[in-house]
Amino acid sequence: MRFLVSLAWKNLSRYKRRTIITVIVIALGISLYILMDGFLLGMEKDSERNLIWYETGTAKIMDRDYWKNIDYLPLKDSFKPSPALVNTIKSSGFSWTKRIAFTAGMFDETGSLPVKVYGIDTKTDENVFKLKEALVKGKYLKPGEYGVLIGVWLARDLNIKLKDIVTIRARTRLGVYQAVDLEVKGIINSPNPVINKGTAFIPLSLADKALEMGGRVTEVALGMPEWASPDKKLILLTGKIEKSFPGLVVESWRELAKDFVSVSEGKRGGTSVFLFLIFIIAMVGISNTMLMAVYERVREIGMMRAMGMKDSSVRIAFLLEAGGIGFIGSSAGIALGALLTFFMVKYGLDYSSYLGEMDIGYRISGVFKAAWDFKAMVYAFFFGVIVSMLAALVPAGRALKMEITDCLKYQ
Amino acid sequence: MKLYRIALRNIKRNKRRSILSGTAIVIAAFAIVFMFSLEGGMMQDMRNNIFHYVTGNIRIRNSDYTKYESLNPLNLRIKNYRSVIEKCRADSNVLAVSPRIRFYTSIYRNDKDYRGIGIGLDFNLEKDFQNFEENLIKGRLPAPGKREILLSSGLAKEMGVGAGDKITMLSRNMYKGMSEMTFKITGIVRFKVESFNKSFFYMPIDTAQRFLKMDNSVTEILLLLKDVSRLKETVSGIKKLLAGSGQSLEVAPWTSIGTWYSIIRMADVTYQIMALIFFILGSTVIINTTMMVIYERMREIGIMSAMGMTGSEIVSLFFLESFFISLISAFTGVILGVGITLPLTVTGLDLSAYMKGINFDISMVLHPQLNVRSTVLVFFYAVAVSSFASFIPSRRAARIEPVEALRAL
With contact defined as beta carbons under 8 Å apart, do B316 and B322 qualify? Predict the structure, then answer.
């Protein structure tokens, strides 16, 4: 066996040109696959982020009845987050904040619009949401002040500027109408159009007072750093909450944004066809180069057999050699792919000059960014190695079936 | 002996080698053609949805409507819409028109308020636009003038109603007063794009005008053109035609209706990047295979030059070989791509298998679109890349001493 390994190694270094050509195909095939995959994943992640950072958080804890009727945001199904609940959340490793969500009419001289209003805890909100980063004009809210942050579309539609006074009217928890005058403290332009179109933010304590909430909130939003995978922790937390707080439910952002998730699954269906095509080209490229490399060496196989090498040993020697090429190629491919992905994750591809001056109404970064997909990298690595080994097996097996003399005469 | 004869003979002599290097070209050409069609199909799909459901090629509105759009200003309307349509039709490039009234309602049912977005339209004229007949899943279309409506599947499901039921809705009319009316649901419609199935319902335009007290006015008129490439001229033509209508109207080409056009352009950039990746990979595969083939034949080159073939002859011989192989392979690849794409254009590529676990009962079907120009481009690209790839190794080979080449492994 040691002999076979060293033979394979010698062959690899002896035919440098052949090795290099094969390695290049494998490496490029794999790195481009990785890049494409990361690129597609990046686009998907981008929309996910906009949801998680601006609307849903990683998950939300709500009253069971509230979740059932979430389309109507029923204030009566709110709850008081007890210290025990807070401890449970903290011990599960999530950051958290409290919010009160309600629908209201927003008035101005020009008319009224239905808006979704969030009472936000100005101190803890940024643990979960990135609202502060999306503030383009004015200042962030101070606790308890009669101020409001509104989305940029909403401001345009109602012709509202900073420091204007707007009136919002909503039903309180007990069902009576309440109206409050608020000063516009800031304008929000986020990458999430829903926030820009019809959402306003007021301090939690003001919402609490105005809506007669008595310390109740409609939701506790949970956050987690982007790189951390929340799924396992979420299952644990859900279990704990179900046991100790039977009136509450934990729903992940996937449940909270079901429509979005299903649309993006559909999109993934389309993009996976592209990935499949890339995969096909890469596979054909790798296997063809490999097939050719071995077919050209039938004479060599004949010589090895004539000198008394066993068929199984010849096969293993070629398998090892192909595996070696696959290994080098795949490693180079992973390295190159990782490098490309790294640049695409960090800097992205700036196409804003292509788009020119455009008012989409929400902030687009104008930069495509990729995302890391380590699983795909591992798969791609093994794919490179296995395809080249399998491809080598075919011509080697054929040569072994021939008579030795035919092998030696082979052109 | 002529070089091309030797080249052809060489190709025939070592069939396996020719086939191997050919397959690389076939697959690369096929995959790129298929990718282009797929992208073309996706873009076409997006465009069609935008044209037929949202903006048309050209959208006509009252010039103040867009500014106050979110307030649903029914009073900022297009008066005498029939005469406006007649004027538009005078432009020979106008293919179809769709007058619409868009309004918001609240529907009270089973102690709950549901929000619905109503669109009053002329069902006869919609054949070129939303094509209700094809997407009708239950019942029939509402009849003009009757108090009948068509619900989108999403709204029907949300309210738990079906064809034949009656619903009452409340809406702010043109004079900002409230109007209430009861309508009979005649049918349920489900479009292929899921977002058009939520909260929408449709009613005959004259019924909507009566309900909202709009007389003979509408909020917008969409136009489809015969030749979309003449968008600019047509817009200015229509503007001139409407100048004497006595009302100030906005005539907007779809490209100026911000969000939609930019979404299309962003998709376009994405697809161009993908195409680039395909081309890089395809070229690598083709170039490497071609180089491999020639490097493996060093000894043959040695024999030929020992027998007196000049360097330039050797280079042109290998160039011709590659050229012939790539000609056949690129053609096969393109034909394969076309052969697979064309039937799929008709039947559609069903991607619903990828959408497992989603309770949408709609299948996502993609119709690839073959683009003649890019298909031809792919053919020439494949031929060029592989022919020129032969230069690198053969020029090197032609330069070394015959003795060296003869000894090569």
Answer: no
